[in-house]
Amino acid sequence: MPSQTGSMPGMKQLAVLGVFILLLAAPPAFGRDAQRDSAVRTRVDRVDISEWGIYKTEVVRTVDAPESLSGKASTVSRRKTELLTETDRIPAVLGTLFGFRYTLVGEPRHRKVPLTLKILLPPPQGQMASDQVRPTITHTLTPPISKKDFVGFGFQTKEEQVPGTWTFQISYGDRLMAEKSFTVFLPNPTQPDTH
Questions:
Q1: CATH number at residue 60
Q2: Average pLDDT of the chain?
Q3: Domain count, the chain
């Protein structure tokens, strides 16, 4: 389960809520293939980020997440996750899902590797980032090497619609492998929603 750090009031429940993480299992290896694969040393070279912006998707499973504001967290379909608009600017509108696709590069192909996803949220309104630790959502990912995957966040409640810089970081152990920032903004209420 994702955990949240920092002292932003009301954000403890945000830990799981809109985080849409794709964690679909790769086919298991059996027999000699499994023995051979376990003897091959894992090499992680880098994480390549592609296709960032606003997405639409299909939820495959929703689970209870009592620490979230809605009490639920979702897993989405890799095949039905579609980029709508490539952008770094994200309107804080309920139902908006944003994030990126990424590929773990290394050897052996298709071996699952534990990575850490951190989403650094903006500080509360009226506070500078230096005033306190930024609220952070943390989650463990296990993508297969060489297979494209997806991470993102979806606004499901008004409390999540926090404007500012949202930074996604993917790490392997202590190594920061990839980072992508988005500017979340509150849209002008007099303008129609265009996405």
A1: 2.60.40.2390
A2: 78
A3: 1
